[in-house]
Amino acid sequence: MEALHPIFKWLHIIAGVLWIGLLYFFNWINGHVVATMDGDTKQKVVPEIMPRTLYFFRWGAAWTWVTGVVLLYVIFWDGALMMGESAGNNMFEVGTDVTGLAHGMLLLTFVAVFAYDYLYSSGLIKDVRVITVVSFLLIAGVVYLMKFYAGFSYRAFNIHIGALLGTNMAFNVWYRIWPAQQRIITAIKNGVAPDPADAGMAGLRSKHNTYMSFPLIWTMINEHTTVFAGGNFGVTDSTNWLVLMIMFALGWHIVWQIYKKAGTIKGF
After folding, report:
1. Which residues of the chain fall short of a pLDDT of 70?
2. Which terminus of the chain is more solvent-facing, meaning fewer CB atoms within 10 Å of its CB: N or C?
């Protein structure tokens, strides 16, 4: 286990840099460049560059997720999930009663993606601002349950929310963005207009991933630097979960500002 920790952390970071770097390229650069191309140029360039970049994009996502799950097991789950009183580890504080709810929250980490996909596919809430607020409140509710009812430590609820976001993002890549992009690229190669529904799906889920990536990266670094765990800057153990939600809001605002800026950058 001690050997797996640094090796898989190294692989996790490499895969994550590859994946998230391409995500930002697609959202803040590539789309604006393709919009300047005429039909003939798109027909030549897009079928060449997009399959190559999407290959590294989707496999970067897959390996980031797989290595992340290995790290969750090595650092948090190994020897920590037996029912009863915890002896203390990265997952639970000493004396925490490990209950079925704790196991349920672990399950939720990986099945919440289906609720997310339904919420954004159903058209149940069409107002962007309203669904953003609903999403924020749902995440806050999960964090609250992890900390106060499932007994997760500060490090544990941070990184498990990160795992929830990462699962959503990897799902989007493989089951929403990649299938739509395959059809879009094929249409462009054949000289026909892509289905607007495919372009809408790929663009929306890619934008979702960009917004989720900022708080995800915070959870990855914050579980190491636990300065906000309690007793620092007036943050107590009962309020440290709010730090994560503040960083969600700040991260989303930064992404929004970068989207605005990206649209103003011009070529020579």
Report:
1. none
2. C
Q: Enter the DSSP assignment of 165.
A: H
pLDDT given at position 1: 76
- Look up tokens 């915070």; give the residue: 218
Give domain limits for the chain. Answer: 4-262
The whole-number pLDDT of residue 89 equals 84
Residue 115 amino acid letter: A
The per-residue pLDDT for 228 is: 84
Exposed / middle / buried, residue 189 (Cβ in 10 Å: 0-12, 13-18, 19+): middle
Chain position carrying tokens 């500002």: 257
Q: Hey, what amino acid is at 145?
A: L
The answer to whether the CB of 152 falls within 8 A of the CB of 92 is yes
Tell me, yes or no, if the pTM score tops 0.70. yes
Q: Tokens in use for 197?
A: 């529904």
pLDDT score recorded for residue 227 = 84
Whole-number Å distance between alpha carbons of 62 and 66: 6
Q: What pLDDT, on a 0 to 100 scale, did the predictor assign at position 36?
A: 95
Task: Kindly give the residue spans of alpha helices, DSSP state H, lying in 122-239.
Answer: 128-148, 154-172, 178-189, 196-222
Beta strands in the chain (DSSP E): 84-85, 97-98
Could you give the 3-state DSSP secondary structure of residue 89?
coil
CA distance 211 to 174: 18
Q: Residue 122: CB partners within 8 Å, gap ≥ 6?
A: none
User: Is 11 within 8 Å of 59 (Cβ atoms)?
Assistant: no
pLDDT of residue 225: 72
